[in-house]
Amino acid sequence: MRIPLNRSAQEPIYLQIRDRISHLITSGSLQAGEQLPSIRALAESVQVNKLTVIEAYSVLEADGLVSARQGAGYFVTNIVNFSERSSTLEPEQEVVIPSKWGESFIDQYMSSIQAQLDPDVIDFTSGFPRPSGLEDLARIARRAMSQVADVLFSYEAPQGQVTLRKQLAQMLAWKLGLEVSADNLIITNGSKQALSLAFQYYLQAGDWVIVESPTYHGAIAILEKMGIKVIGIPMQKDGMNLELLNQYLRSHQPKLIYTVSTLHNPTGITTSQAHRRELMSLSEKYNCPILEDNAYEGLSFEPAPPPLKVLDRSDLVTYIGTFSKTLMPGLRIGYMVSTGKHYQSLVEMKLLHDLHVSTVTQAITSEYIASGHYRRHLNHLRSINHQRHDLMLQLMEQHFPTSIRWTVPNGGLFIWVQLPNHTPMQSVGQQAAAQKILIGRGKPFFPDGQGYPAFRLNFSQSLENIERGIVILGDILKQNL
Question: How far apart are CA 56 and CA 403, in angstroms?
Fold first, then answer.
């Protein structure tokens, strides 16, 4: 295998190797099932250290292009042909300014927690991945504990362990093109804490904030408790309606825009590069900060456009991510990226909240990254999610009434289902629950707790549960429409 290298280029050598092999695979020069050169052979061929080849192969594995076989080496995998289905969503384009709040995020969350106690319940309301591919957890946890045992009897920096922040900075650069340093990162107790910190930093009771409609219901719940005045800009197939956004930025002068640009919760929509550039331009025009909450970005089936933070030249964007959706929710490891004058103030707020995130869970996450297990796990998770995503869409096409519309996300965990305006959603939810099927009713995702009839489905369930659940839901919907 010939791999030309430019040793004076800024791009690291391992990425040049990755790019060349990736091109050979996607162009068909390397076929599915074909074995790659051994680590030793390729290192000798291109005259690099074996660790460089290991790093290149690890990135290819994380990209889903190759897989390792114990004792045999690396082999080209079957390249996934992404679904050609397209979204049929046609949401109403009405701006929402709530005078009262509706159904509770807390109620829906507690229902999902309760459902975990009954193994017969199919919980489509969950926002988490299913347990999978974590067979090495005990060994990784033991190794992580041995590395931090001497600091367990003292406090750590509120912004998080330096090692983990450096690893995150490298990951964000490699995966998203987001060039930041460890000194721009704050480790938080999940992305939910990052949301709370950012809202409290940018907003005070009575301020206006822009959100998407629908949006993450947990964010709506925080804003409600803070006494913030919300403007819900409707979602279109390609993201927030930017024409209406421009109008309300001018008329209401909000203090913050809250957006989920990649694999939006609840719709699953990923905005285009053009949409992101225009949104960034509006933020700069009105000097309105953006809170970019991309909790599901790591679960994208194919590369998404760079985050808004990559386009940020004026320190207007605060970026939030998490390992809860890609590794384990129970670790409670999230993070936020902040640049310029905002960083130190956010660190001080974090210190007042809880001193620092658990030393143990930070160490476990760091060890997952350092050992390469996180990349392999993420690749495995995307693969099984894609299979379940396709099955759910196929079953919906077969069993749902033709009057129903839905999104076709390119990853994440959710499909957003839009129903006709006359649909008795409460009855649908009750009939489904009677058959041990829980659906995420749409109301809590709208700022006024109303919105059009809709529900959110999580496709990370087992294949058997997806099939049973969608067939039952289809029958219930046909009875009610």
Answer: 48
The pTM of this model reads 0.81
Task: Give the tens place of pLDDT for each residue, 229-250.
Answer: 999 999 999 999 999 999 999 9
Using 50, 70 and 90 to split pLDDT, how confident is the model at 81? very low
What is the distance between the alpha carbons of residues 64 and 57, in angstroms, rounded to a whole number? 11
Rounded to an integer, what distance in angstroms lies between the CA atom of residue 268 and that of residue 237? 10
Given a contact cutoff of 8 angstroms between Cβ atoms, the answer to whether 128 and 443 are in contact is no
Q: Residue 400 phi/psi, 5° resolution?
A: -85, 145
How big is the CA angle at 163 (ends 158 and 166), to the nearest 5 degrees?
A: 95
Distance between CA atoms of 137 and 129, rounded to whole angstroms? 16
- Angle of helix 190-202 versus helix 342-354 axis, rounded to 10: 120
Find residue 210's DSSP bridge partners.
231, 257
Per-residue three-class SS string for the chain: CCCCCCCCCCCCHHHHHHHHHHHHHHCCCCCCCCECCCHHHHHHHHCCCHHHHHHHHHHHHHCCCEEEECCCEEEECCCCCCCCCCCCCCCCCCCECCCCCCCCHHHHHHHHHHHCCCCCCEECCCCCCCCCCCCCHHHHHHHHHHHHHHHCCCCCCCCCCHHHHHHHHHHHHHHHCCCCCHHHEEEEEHHHHHHHHHHHHHCCCCCEEEEEECCCHHHHHHHHHHCCEEEEEEEECCEECHHHHHHHHHHHCCCEEEECCCCCCCCCCCCCHHHHHHHHHHHHHHCCCEEEECCCHHHECCCCCCCHHHHCCCCCEEEEEECCCCCCHHHCEEEEECCCCHHHHHHHHHHHHHCCCCHHHHHHHHHHHHCCHHHHHHHHHHHHHHHHHHHHHHHHHHHCCCCCEECCCCECCEEEEECCCCCCHHHHHHHHHHCCEECEECHHHCCCCCCCCEEEEECCCCHHHHHHHHHHHHHHHHHHC
Q: What angle do CA 190, 196, 199 make, to 5 degrees?
A: 140
**Helix 217-226 with 190-202: angle, nearest 10 deg:** 40
**53, amino acid identity:** V
Residue 205 Cα to chain centre, angstroms: 29
How long a stretch of residues is the chain? 481
User: Residue 263's closest CA among 205, 322, 210, 208?
Assistant: 322
CA 339 to chain centre: 21
pLDDT, tens only, 410-441: 999 999 999 999 999 999 999 999 999 999 88
| Each residue's pLDDT tens digit, 12-50 | 888 889 888 887 886 677 888 889 999 999 999 999 998
CA atoms of 179 and 184, how far apart (whole Å)? 10
d(CA 372, CA 60): 12
